[in-house]
UniProtKB/TrEMBL annotation:
The gene is hutH. It comes from Streptomyces boncukensis. Keywords: Cytoplasm, Histidine metabolism, Lyase. The lineage of its organism: Bacteria, Bacillati, Actinomycetota, Actinomycetes, Kitasatosporales. CDD domains: PAL-HAL (cd00332). It catalyses: L-histidine = trans-urocanate + NH4(+). Its EC number is 4.3.1.3. This is Histidine ammonia-lyase.
């Protein structure tokens, strides 16, 4: 595990802090400021607990059962019971990085001093993170309202020494055993603490932050792949000129066009509208197809959607989501800030953007493979068409992925199923939106990888054609790096899946962006 330490105070943490803990295994440490805020807020809760007046979450039941006043002799049991009963998830366990993000973001809210838990509870959560213990959190159970209740309940159950968790070695074992091995005492929950551990949008927010990081890399990767396809199709780079994009001033569009121009700099392949790959005059072509010409407009719209999603994520990072919440003057007030709509909407927006980016990438790949539209490239980029099938079925795989991404673009946040005896009668489905976005991001990575693999093969075929066409330095650097990574170039048919797997990892690891930037400098 990374020994980098993220300090958690009463102020907001940053997206990079979340990535460091979730993906980098960074340790966490509560500041003295946070511990003091926790102690102050806890004092308010204990004062209220001593009074006869009912306070939601402190001396009442939960949800539709909030009408019952709970006496002091049953309050510890009440808090234990909410965790046990709400830890009702089903299905496979979610990824370790999601669980770590979920716990870290809940810890961030506890440290704000707005939840009223004791400092010991927050310190135990930090200790569990630092020990590399990840509670088993299941795929299904959250409606994205009243927080990610079931996922957070499974995390709280681990703090109590109950349920199952994954140790630092990846083995799933009883949580109590893992806590004991690391010298962590299980917490005994008191008034409000069970509820405070469950009532946040932390799961969907954590997945949003990770999706934003992944999509930023994928938008740049898609720009590179689109540029190489334009180059291989002998398209024109004049449509990428800054002055053309300035008259429709969407910042994402301008960024994508600028990236493509950088990748194409110095290419001798662009702009050959009147000739084929062997220099023989071809039918006049004054414009490229939409999938090539409009690449910056589509990828740029996705970039702008990503920018909006990041704004929402940063606002949510600055929030302290709980119900009821402890205010600075000591009042404890019920609220609806746990509703996941703001996060759910942008998760769905990003799924739409991912699907459309995949769709246009697949159309470009299809043009590279179709001899009637590829301007002189061999059918399916095969060595001996008819004997060899080339990349025919790679495009089938890409099309299947795009079809799935289109299904995943159907918004989860447009759905709502009432729960808790109609007390919670409108929910966000934000957790579901986050889960399907993770699948969509994974699919988009593969789609971009297939376009990249086809475009690099096409570029090599152009340069080997004898027509004297040479590609730009950035494209040649990408081809060289991809081949060095293990994806083979043109030739007779072979077992293709391993090459596509290499291309997939090449995109996912950021190697594609790094190889292009070795020539272009930083791409946006």
């Amino acid at each position: 595990m990374d020994m980098h330490t993220v300090r958690v105070g009463t102020a907001s943490v940053t997206p990079s802090d979340v990535m460091a803990v979730a993906r980098g295994g960074a340790r966490v440490e509560l500041t003295e400021e946070a511990l003091e805020a926790l102690r102050t807020a806890r004092g308010f809760i204990e004062d209220l607990a001593a009074k006869p007046d009912p306070v939601y979450g402190v001396s009442t039941g939960f949800g539709a059962l909030a009408v019952r006043h709970i006496g002091q002799d049953l309050r510890a049991r009440l808090q234990r019971n909410i965790v046990r009963s709400h830890a009702a998830g089903m299905g496979p366990g979610v990824e370790r990085e999601v669980v770590r993000a979920l716990m870290f973001l809940r810890l961030k809210t506890l440290a704000s001093g707005r939840t009223g838990v004791r400092a010991e509870v927050a310190q135990t959560m930090a200790a569990v993170l630092n020990a590399g213990i990840a509670p088993v959190v299941h795929e299904y159970g959250s409606l994205g309202c009243s927080g990610d209740l079931a996922p957070l309940s499974h995390c709280a159950l681990t703090l109590m020494g109950e349920g199952e968790a994954e140790g630092p070695d990846g083995a799933v074992r009883p949580a109590g055993e893992l806590l004991a091995e690391h010298g962590i005492a299980p917490v005994e929950l008191r008034e409000k603490e069970g509820l405070a551990l469950l009532n946040g949008t932390d799961g969907m927010l954590g997945m949003l932050l990770m999706a934003c990081e992944d999509l930023a890399r994928l938008f740049t990767s898609a720009d590179i792949a689109a540029a190489l396809t334009l180059e291989a199709l002998l398209g024109t780079d004049r449509v990428l000129a800054a002055e053309l994009h300035a008259i429709r001033p969407h910042p994402g569009q301008a960024a994508s066009a600028a990236n493509m121009l950088k990748v194409l700099e110095g290419s001798a392949m662009t702009g050959h509208h009147q000739t084929g790959w062997d220099g023989v005059p071809a039918a006049p072509r004054v414009q490229d197809a939409y999938s090539v010409r409009c690449a910056p407009q589509v990828a740029g719209a996705g970039r702008d959607t990503l920018a909006h999603a990041r704004t929402v994520a940063e606002r949510e990072l600055a929030a302290a989501v709980d119900n009821p919440v402890v205010l600075p003057d000591g009042r404890v007030e019920s609220n609806g800030n746990f509703h996941g709509a703001p996060v759910a909407y942008v998760l769905d927006f990003l799924a739409v953007a991912a699907a459309d980016l995949a769709s246009i990438a697949e159309r470009r790949t299809d043009r590279l493979l179709d001899r009637n539209r590829s301007h002189g490239l061999p059918p399916f980029l095969a060595q001996d068409p008819g004997v060899d099938s080339g990349l025919m079925i790679a495009q089938y795989t890409q099309a299947a992925l795009v079809s799935e991404l289109k299904r995943l673009a159907v918004p989860a946040s447009a759905d709502s199923i009432p729960s808790s005896a109609m007390q919670e009668d409108h929910v966000s489905m934000g957790w579901s939106a986050a889960r399907k976005l993770r699948t969509a991001v994974d699919g988009l990575n593969r789609v971009v990888a297939v376009e990249l693999y086809a475009a690099t093969r096409a570029l090599e075929l152009r340069e080997a054609s004898g027509a004297g066409l040479t590609g730009g330095a950035a494209g040649r650097a990408v081809v060289r790096a991809l081949r060095e990574a293990g994806a083979e170039g043109p030739g007779e048919d072979r077992f293709l899946a391993p090459d596509l797997a290499v291309a997939e990892d090449f995109v996912r690891s950021g190697a594609l962006v790094r190889s292009a930037e070795s020539v272009t400098g930083v791409l946006r």
